[in-house]
């Protein structure tokens, strides 16, 4: 999939090379990345879960549901943090939608814990059944300390 008109990562992501903090609009974003191709490594390394889809759908209805999950449409940007954790970054002016909740449940059914992030709020951890929220949060913090944004 391609980003299309979505630029949520340009606001929610941290870009150390540019001194850009989470929640700030990137200075190079104007309806898309003005420096794409020469964009910072942290941007190149970021993998929005929505964009990672291969574009194959079992039905028209499934495709329509998936298109509604684009971050600028559902208010939440999902990305894989580790082999066991997905994160959901919620836009500051949004709440988690029912469709985003369904995606969270899908991640959990696949064995992933989910850490929900919203600027200015404490992360909310949704562990899979065999893990505690503390264990998941500790792994999440460890990935941050290793430089994995």
What this model shows, in words?
With 149 residues, the protein is of the alpha+beta class. The protein has a domain at 47-145. The chain is 32% helix and 13% strand. The longest helix is centred in the C-terminal third of the chain and has 13 residues, at 133-145. The two termini are 22 Å apart. The model has no long low-confidence stretch (mean pLDDT 86).
Oligomer kind? single chain
Largest sheet: 4 strands, mixed
Helical residue percent band: 25-40%
Strand content: 5-15%
Mean pLDDT: 86
Q: How would you describe the shape?
A: globular
Q: Measured on Cα atoms, how large is the radius of gyration?
A: 15 Å
The count of helical stretches stands at 6
**Strands side by side in the biggest sheet:** 1-2-3-4
* Unreliable stretches: none
Counting helices, strands and paired strands, the structural category is: alpha+beta
What distance lies between the first and last C-alpha atoms, to the nearest angstrom?
22 Å
Count of DSSP E strands?
Answer: 4
H/E element string? HHHHEEHEEH
Question: What attributes does this structure have?
Answer:
149 residues; alpha+beta; 4-stranded mixed beta sheet; 6 helices
Briefly summarize what is shown.
The protein contains six helices and four strands, in the order H-H-H-H-E-E-H-E-E-H. Helix content is 32%, strand content 13%.
Topology:
Layout lengths: L8 H4 L28 H5 L14 H9 L2 H4 L1 E5 L4 E6 L7 H12 L3 E6 L5 E3 L6 H13 L4
Parallel strand pairs: 2-3
Antiparallel strand pairs: 1-2, 3-4
